[in-house]
């Protein structure tokens, strides 16, 4: 699945993916097409008899909790963290599908994500499953952020600054984070009751900044455009009215917010470029696909921390990493597979093209015919009806020949050439 995401072929037909003349031979070498179809069709993540029916996340709760607990154990993030929403596209039957017009997909499953800004490492995630008991949840944004933060180890929480957008910004959330020895910064909606009325007014003085201090908090009102409402920032990490000495006189608080708000958006963009998601009608599969995508991003971050000079200066680093990751995950399986007897012809050809050595009883000749004609032609030994069109050709005479009229796997030889030899 990771390999199909690298080549952006996750929406192609499975029959085309398992055709070694059209795509990567890794699929055919790893498992049969029928087995992969059965895995996609019958995979389940819980026992329906012991499932908690009151839990909407019950079909995938067990492995989802295991996955989220492991995220923060293997990486120490930097100073700046960010919390934002992630929308996984899905339009199937699900009672908590969300509509977000600002997102490209519009409809899907909404995840809350806590990530590191500098390294794009996902520290914690949670899935929004809608209202509980058909009641509107109060202080939902505050509860979401605190739930994500409380999953971090105690030594990681202290001294971090969390950035979030206007949906999460609230004075109660800032107080709760200060109790955990964490600072925060975010944009404030104008309808918030704790804002002074004079900070909401549209001012004629362009690029003017008003600062309002209340204990450990700083509220900033910046007039960025004419005849538009000012931008209001609430911060607990700034205690001085600092402004850049340029034409727009941009406050340092807005600059810091702009530099740390994009963490989850970059992760969402990376997942969209090389995703493992396939078309499926079951929403637990999309949660599972998103877990694989996040695990691939985190594994690359940890790998680059230990190998900082790996592919330094290249622009396709993530593509190369995912390609090598898919090969490494299937290497042990293919090593065992290559030593089995009675392998099918196309499986042998796929394993040989990947560089695996077959057992001596499976190899009759050291020559390997890995060259196939780009276009199909009729087998010259088949009758006109039915005439098989194939790409493989005889190594000796060069004529197209089907599997029924050829022998040997490593080197294709037609029956006539075999009789002559």
Task: Describe the protein in words.
The chain is α+β, with helices and mostly antiparallel strands and 421 residues long. Helix content is 34%, strand content 15%. The chain is built from 15 helices and 13 strands. It has helices at residues 2-6, 14-17, 26-30, 33-42, 61-71, 140-150, 154-157, 171-179, 197-200, 252-260, 263-273, 283-306, 317-338, 345-353, 415-420, and strands spanning 80-89, 98-99, 107-116, 122-127, 161-164, 183-187, 209-214, 217-222, 231-235, 377-378, 389-390, 406-407, 413-414. Strands 1, 2, 3, 4, 5, 6, 7, 8 and 9 form a nine-stranded mixed β-sheet that branches. A two-stranded antiparallel ribbon has the order 10-11. The longest helix has 24 residues, at 283-306.
């Amino acid at each position: 699945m990771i390999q199909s995401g690298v080549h952006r072929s996750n929406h192609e037909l499975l029959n085309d993916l398992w055709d070694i003349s059209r795509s990567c031979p890794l699929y055919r070498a790893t498992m049969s097409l029928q087995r992969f179809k059965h895995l996609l069709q019958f995979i389940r993540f819980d026992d329906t008899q012991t499932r908690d029916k009151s839990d909407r996340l019950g079909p995938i709760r067990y492995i989802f909790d295991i996955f989220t607990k492991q995220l923060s154990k293997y990486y120490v993030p930097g100073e700046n963290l960010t919390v934002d929403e992630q929308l996984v596209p899905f339009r199937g039957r699900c009672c908590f599908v969300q509509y977000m017009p600002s997102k490209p997909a519009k409809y899907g499953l909404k995840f809350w994500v806590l990530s590191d800004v500098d390294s794009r490492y996902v520290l914690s995630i949670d899935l929004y499953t809608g209202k509980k008991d058909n009641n509107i949840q109060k202080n939902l944004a505050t509860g979401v952020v605190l739930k994500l933060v409380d999953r971090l180890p105690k030594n990681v929480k202290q001294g971090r600054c969390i950035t979030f957008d206007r949906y999460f910004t609230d004075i109660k959330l800032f107080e709760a984070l200060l109790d955990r020895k964490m600072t925060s910064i975010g944009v404030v909606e104008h309808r918030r009751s704790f804002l002074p009325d004079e900070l909401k007014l549209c001012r004629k003085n362009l690029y003017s900044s008003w600062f309002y201090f209340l204990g450990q908090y700083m509220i900033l009102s910046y007039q960025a455009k004419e005849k538009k409402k000012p931008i209001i920032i609430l911060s607990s990490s700034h205690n001085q009215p600092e402004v850049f000495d340029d034409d727009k006189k941009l406050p340092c608080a807005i600059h810091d917010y702009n530099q740390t708000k994009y963490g989850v958006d970059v992760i969402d963009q990376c997942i969209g470029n090389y995703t493992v998601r396939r078309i499926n009608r079951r929403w637990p599969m999309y949660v599972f696909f998103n877990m694989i995508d996040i695990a691939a991003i985190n594994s690359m971050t940890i790998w680059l921390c230990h190998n900082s000079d790996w592919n330094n200066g290249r622009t396709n680093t993530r593509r190369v990493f995912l390609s090598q990751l898919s090969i490494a995950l299937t290497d042990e399986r293919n090593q065992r597979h290559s030593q089995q007897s009675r392998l099918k012809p196309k499986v042998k050809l796929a394993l040989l093209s990947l560089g695996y050595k077959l057992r001596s009883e499976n190899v009759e000749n050291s020559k390997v015919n890995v060259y196939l004609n780009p276009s199909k032609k009729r087998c010259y030994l088949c009758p006109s009806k039915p005439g098989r069109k194939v790409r493989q050709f005889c190594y000796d005479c060069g004529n197209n020949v089907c599997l029924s009229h050829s022998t040997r796997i490593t080197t294709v030889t037609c029956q006539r050439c075999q009789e002559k030899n």
